[in-house]
Amino acid sequence: MSSLSIESVQLPFLAQRLDAVREFYHRVIGLDEVACGDGQRLRFALGEATLSLSPVDEVSRAVRPDYLAIKTRAYDDILARLTRAGHHPVCSLPEASPRVMYVKDPSGNQLAFLG
Questions:
Q1: Residue 33, number of CB atoms within 10 A of its CB
Q2: Which end of the chain is more exposed for a tag (fewer CB within 10 A), N or C?
Q3: How far apart are CA 5 and CA 69, in angstroms?
Q4: Does residue 90 fall inside a structural domain?
């Protein structure tokens, strides 16, 4: 579907490993760090998308801050298809900009669609 592209990928990292994580993605992998504004999260340019890393005290299998954010020009169409297929996305208010909906895939991975 040509109306979709990756906006961002969100992953957790152990807060006490901030410097090592920054070093890994910037110096080892070679990604450019992008200002995030809050001083705790890390964000790196990943082509037209971003890799966002959020600090956690411990890695939990129950509560996961990771998700894939997808940009779309077909927001309403995707929302309708998800609803028809029996999924129940959580959506921002219609006047929000950008509009965002969150839904889990059959394996429990969280997706965010931005329209």
A1: 13
A2: N
A3: 9
A4: yes
Model pTM? 0.65
Looking only at Cα atoms, what is the longest distance across the chain?
46
Cα 5 to Cα 15, 26, 30, 60, 106, distances in angstroms: 29, 23, 22, 28, 21
Give CA–CA dist 104/31, Å, rounded. 28
* Structural domain contains residue 3: no
CATH number of the domain that residue 65 is part of: 3.10.180.10
**Beta strands in 1-115, from DSSP E residues, in sequence order:** 4-14, 42-46, 49-56, 67-72, 90-91, 100-104, 110-114
Q: What is the count of structural domains for the chain? A: 1
1 assigned to some structural domain: no
- pLDDT tens string, the chain, 115 residues long: the values are 557 788 888 888 888 888 998 998 899 778 899 988 777 789 999 888 898 888 888 766 665 667 788 888 889 998 998 999 999 999 988 888 889 999 887 667 788 888 9
* Phi-psi domain of 30 (left: phi exceeds 0; alpha: psi -120 through 50; beta: other): left
